[in-house]
């Protein structure tokens, strides 16, 4: 039976996910640092996720942009190993639950201090730990994508001199942004408190992330 265009897309996405799953952090750490072919460039202002705005009211430091910090970091072997370690460790430590299960609301962004959270909570904790280790927060914008289920999903982007990389609670492998299979919608601005479009979808279509 011939495959439809939709089936082909789904199959391609499954192959991408399988490739990421086959590259655990330990295996990645032994190889050369990958290079993203091009940066994930911004294309104008975007509306912030409403739950992010609520986070900013409760925890302003999570949203503040310090223009004195670098907007990209030098990717060294030491930093690469740290990124892989933080990504896989947080993925192991935090129990994945939806915001409705956790808080009784559709979408809430917060640090998973009770050991439970969904995608954006994983990403916030990864950013916190990397910032505590000296990585400039400005180089780590929270990012919203459309995932394989055509749903909003949040990841952490790290912008480096070797390209932009994605820390994701769906896999321990840290991939160049262009190899995740996601559609990139928007990310935090590196110039001010707010968000910028990545041009991959109409930003109004992503009301919440999970």
From TrEMBL:
Keyword Signal among record annotations: yes
Signal peptide boundaries: 1-27
Keywords of this entry: Signal
Keyword Magnesium among record annotations: no
Stretches of the chain forming a coiled coil according to its record: none
Organism encoding this protein: Bosea massiliensis
Domain of life: Bacteria
Gene3D superfamilies for this protein: 3.10.620.30
Name of the protein: Transglutaminase-like cysteine peptidase
InterPro entries reported in the protein's UniProt record: Transglutaminase-like_Cys_pept
